[in-house]
């Protein structure tokens, strides 16, 4: 069931209960007020009848010492006849509560009569057939006799008014409920519009339209929910784009890796087949073996670097306190006789790092600097102590990197000059490995390059 229908039904139930209860209380209040007024009127009229009866008894001829039963009947008949409206009934009983006079239609029930005592006035509401009466009872004294006077006053009109009141209120309630239902139906549709918009946006997103947003039409709780949903959708869309980009990058990585494997393997297989299928002179034999060796070394280097990248993805390192002299001495040993002008300058210091990983970073950076430089070119390797931490810097004065490609060179298998890199056993994995290692050390590469003037790469160890 729709939420708007639930609001409508609940509202109708609450309104019906409220109207019904309030109507019942109101009509019954009016009824009780009218009935109490009729009771007071009936008691007052019974007092007048008492006085009239006792006055009539005083006019009885003096030869009677005790009021005769016959005279009681006559007085009762005259009192009944004096009622111009004809809605009053009388009953007069003797000392022993024997009925002396009763109007036609007076109830035969004597329960009230049995309860009458001296100086008491009793009354009750009784139904007789389909009519309602107020029955009163009292004692009176007349000519040495104690009699009991009872009256019945027709108050059916009060009960009929109550019935009519309930009927009118029922009709009014039904009319109000119908009008209220129409108004609440429109109101519930208006109130639940943000929910419908959110539902539509959710359905669109489930169908793959991640850019779809729900329209915010209010600033209440539902409006805030819409705004939060849109923020969530934006974050989800961004994450999905990141996942798609990651999948694309992985596909490109696999394609590039397969391509990088194919080139050296083709050369190895070709030269190995040449050595296997024919007898070569010493020079060609050496040349073929040299190609197989160099391509095999390139495969080895690529495999090791790829393995290092996979290892760094595990996000687990154990930093050790290390003297930077160990790092720069290692680089000097590796590249001091490389055929380049290798300059090393550094400030003495101790830092917390995973030694082998940082050595791999520096080794890759210097190796890339050598590949970008001509033989005999200058390579500067420096270390600075700064307030933020220890800054490593590797600079070459080679061909540089085009501005549009600076952000791409840290991607796996990306090479600015593929033919030049492959000729020097490059596979485009070095900087990608450096990025992952520095990420584990909460650092990153800072790359500055001018085409034709060289490249400077820095990273800070805090």
Task: Give a nutshell description of this structure.
The chain is of the alpha+beta class and 462 residues long. The protein is built from 11 helices and 12 strands.
Biggest sheet features: 5 strands, antiparallel
Number of domains: 3
Q: Give the class from helix and strand content and strand pairing.
A: alpha+beta
How many β-strand stretches?
12
**Beta-strand fraction estimate:** 15-25%
Please mark out the parts with pLDDT under 50 across 5 or more consecutive residues, or reply none.
415-428
Shape field: rod-shaped
**CATH superfamily of the largest domain, please?**
PAS domain
Mean pLDDT: 82
Strand order in the largest sheet: 2-1-5-4-3
The name of the CATH architecture of the largest domain is 2-Layer Sandwich
Name a few traits of the molecule.
462 residues; alpha+beta; Beta-Lactamase; Heat Shock Protein 90; 3 domains; five-stranded mixed β-sheet; 12 strands; 56% helix
Structural features, described:
The protein is of the alpha+beta class. The chain folds into three domains: 3-166, 2-Layer Sandwich (Beta-Lactamase); 203-250; 313-461, Heat Shock Protein 90, CATH 3.30.565.10. The protein has eleven helices and twelve strands. A five-stranded antiparallel beta sheet has the order 2-1-5-4-3. A five-stranded mixed beta sheet has the order 7-9-10-12-11. Helix 9 runs antiparallel to helix 11 (430-440). The longest helix is centred in the middle third of the chain and has 57 residues, at 221-277. Mean pLDDT is 82; it is low at 415-428.
């Amino acid at each position: 069931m729709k939420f708007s229908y639930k609001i409508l039904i609940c509202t109708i139930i609450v309104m019906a209960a409220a109207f019904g209860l309030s109507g019942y209380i109101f009509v019954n209040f009016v009824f009780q007020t009218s009935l109490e007024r009729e009771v007071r009127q009936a008691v007052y009229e019974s007092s007048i009848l008492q006085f009239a009866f006792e006055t009539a008894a005083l006019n009885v001829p003096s030869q009677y010492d005790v009021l005769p039963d016959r005279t009681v009947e006559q007085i009762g008949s005259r009192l009944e006849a004096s009622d111009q409206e004809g809605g009053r009934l009388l009953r007069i009983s003797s000392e022993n509560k024997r009925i002396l006079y009763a109007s036609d239609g007076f109830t035969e029930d004597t329960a009230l009569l049995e309860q009458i005592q001296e100086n008491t006035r009793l009354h009750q509401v009784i139904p007789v057939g389909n009519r309602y009466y107020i029955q009163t009872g009292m004692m009176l004294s007349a000519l040495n006799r104690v009699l009991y006077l009872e009256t019945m006053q027709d108050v059916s009109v009060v009960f009929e008014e109550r019935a009519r009141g309930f009927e009118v209120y029922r009709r009014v309630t039904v009319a109000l409920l119908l009008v209220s239902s129409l108004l609440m139906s429109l109101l519930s549709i208006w109130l639940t519009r943000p929910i419908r918009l959110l539902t539509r946006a959710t359905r669109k997103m489930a169908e793959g339209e991640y850019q779809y947003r729900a329209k915010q039409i209010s600033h209440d709780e539902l409006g805030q929910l819409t705004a939060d949903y849109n923020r969530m959708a934006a974050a989800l869309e961004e994450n999905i784009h990141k996942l798609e980009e990651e999948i694309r990058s992985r596909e490109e990585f696999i394609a590039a890796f397969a391509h990088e494997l194919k080139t050296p393997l083709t050369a190895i297989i070709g030269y190995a087949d040449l050595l296997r299928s024919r007898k070569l002179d010493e020079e060609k034999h050496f040349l073929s073996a040299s190609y197989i060796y160099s391509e095999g070394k390139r495969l080895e280097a690529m495999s090791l670097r790829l393995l290092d990248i996979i290892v760094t993805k595990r996000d687990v390192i154990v930093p050790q306190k290390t003297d930077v002299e160990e790092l720069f001495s290692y680089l000097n040993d590796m590249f001091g006789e490389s055929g380049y002008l290798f300059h090393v300058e550094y400030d003495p210091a101790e830092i917390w790092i995973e030694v082998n990983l940082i050595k791999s970073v520096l080794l890759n950076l210097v190796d890339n600097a050598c590949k970008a430089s001509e033989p005999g070119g200058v390579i500067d390797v420096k270390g600075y102590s700064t307030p933020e931490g220890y800054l490593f810097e590797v600079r070459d004065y080679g061909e540089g990197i085009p501005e549009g490609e600076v952000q791409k060179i840290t991607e796996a298998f990306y090479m600015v000059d593929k033919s030049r890199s492959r000729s020097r056993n490059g596979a485009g994995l070095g900087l990608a490995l450096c990025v992952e290692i520095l990420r584990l050390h909460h650092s990153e590469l800072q790359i500055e390059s001018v085409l034709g003037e060289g490249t400077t790469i820095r990273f800070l160890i805090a």
